[in-house]
Amino acid sequence: MAPHSLQDEGPTDLEQNLDDDEIRPPSPPPMSATPPRLLVIGAGSRGRTYARCSLQSSNGIIAAVAEPDDYKRQDFGAKFVWGKTTPPPPGSSFKDWREYVAWETDRRERQKSGETVPEGIDAAFICVRDEMHHDVIMGLAPLGLHIMCEKPLATTLDDCTNIYRTLAPLQSTKVFSIGHVMRYSPHNMMLRKLLLEDNAIGDILSVHHTEPVGFWHFSHSYVRGNWRRESITAPSLLTKSCHDIDILLWLLCSPAPGSDAPEHLPTSVTSTGSLQFFRKGRKPKAAGNATNCLSCPAENECLYSSKRIYVGSKHMGLETGNIRWPISIVLPDIESFGDDFGKAKAALLSKLAEDYDDSTPREVIDSKNWFGRCVFESDNDVCDEQVVVMTWGDDPLPRSNAPAKDALGSRGAKQATFHMIAQTKKQCQRFTYVYGTEGEIYADSKTITIEDFRTGETKTYKPKLESLGHGGGDHGLTRQFVLAVDRVKNSGWKAENAQREFIGCSLEEIIRSHAMVFAAEEARRDGKTVDWKAWWDRNVGTM
């Protein structure tokens, strides 16, 4: 489960004051007689988000949860599955995905023998740690469930291609979705329509897309948190930015809706980046030998003080009244303290005081997060800044009757530049510049502004955002996935049609965007430009 900031998550309920450019998510579609029954594997922040979105915006029901942490599992079940006053019914609560698979296998055997058994599960949301995705998908595949996996698909290219080859034969009966939520926000859907269907700026020549992670958000997730080391999870380009790469390919590679044209595939990719700031050489001299914020003489002046971030009132600390992200990541049972601020603060400070030294075994250090650790003394090694440049060459199709302004037919040379940067005030509020043959576009998380070279006019669009989570992307992805499952289950749709109509992203596209990340990482590590076709043929081959 890749990290998401509070900006990404959105508020946890619908009781909020909405700006003029925001709307509430649409009401759920009508319930079928046998609505899709959903299992959430992993009751962390993303699992809870998809459960909430399922209840608010889909026609499915959350029927079960699999989660090893007893508190998280019970709290999730009480809120989304069985309620606060009744015990978990059979087949609704599991300690992990393996326990679910064993139970479901036995349930099916008992059903075959004529025994009355509980209803089964139709679809699963996989929201566990990134490095577990492959094993969970492979474990669920024999059960024939519809699957939505949180991004990234897996942490190695081999695991990604193995998943593809396992799931590809199931595409005739089952749908598969990936947590590329940015495809489903009204903002990005409008941007794609303007570019590919309306040709608002002519042919695209260049795209510059920036993801500002946020200075303290990066320290939380990528210096102290789960995603701090490549050896434990994967490069930050994959864990944080794989759906940014996906968006760029969606805009520049995938054909427009309704078109039967082949993809315009890239020709090359190169990348530069490193760990620039969060390392020992940047440690303030005033901090001395301190390795934990609570014992550091420079704590009061440090932007990355764990007390400042998690306890204080400057960001989203406990003193602001926040008990959700990031506080709930540091102390998962924070809600159990109720209104007793003193006890909650004491428990939080105790957690932040945890530290390690040279005598601590490596496996212990790797097994947990250290949210009180000095950010300049952590064991992190992922990039805190990276640039990726992808290029496309001329690739005109054979002559056809389709209208085109020139011989290239909107398949001319172009490039995309992606920039991920940690040290920003903005927190995951992405912005994009698109330059075309007849105009240019600036797009941020709320507006799209077009400068039309032909008329000299400036037009600004403010898409109505479904305000929760990625500008509505969380709700959009959840709603579309569950609708696809419902159509296959209750309306006799072929899975291929439901995949295309509702999910709008094929397995091939999922693999391509992940492969681009791995190719960019090879380019960065080796200091070279990667030829895309040769790299694909060598590392992926025929899909």
Which SSEs are present, and which pair or pack?
Layout lengths: L5 H4 L12 E2 L13 E5 L3 H13 L3 E6 L3 H11 L12 E2 L2 H16 L10 E4 L6 H8 L5 E4 L7 H11 L8 E3 L7 H12 L6 E9 L2 H9 L12 H4 L2 H11 L15 E7 L31 H6 L15 H4 L10 H12 L9 H5 L18 E8 L21 E8 L9 E6 L2 E5 L4 E5 L5 E4 L3 E2 L6 H18 L4 H9 L3 H20 L3 E2 H8 L4
Radius of gyration: 24 Å
Using DSSP, what is the number of strands? 17
The proportion of residues in beta strands is 15-25%
Label the overall shape.
globular
Tell me roughly what share of residues is in helical segments: 25-40%
Low-confidence stretches: 4-17
Q: Tell me about the biggest sheet?
A: 9 strands, mixed
Mean pLDDT level: 93
Instruction: Quickly count the helices.
Output: 18
What gap, in angstroms, lies between the N and C termini?
26 Å
- Give the structural class: alpha/beta
Strand order of the largest sheet: 15-14-13-12-8-11-10-9-17
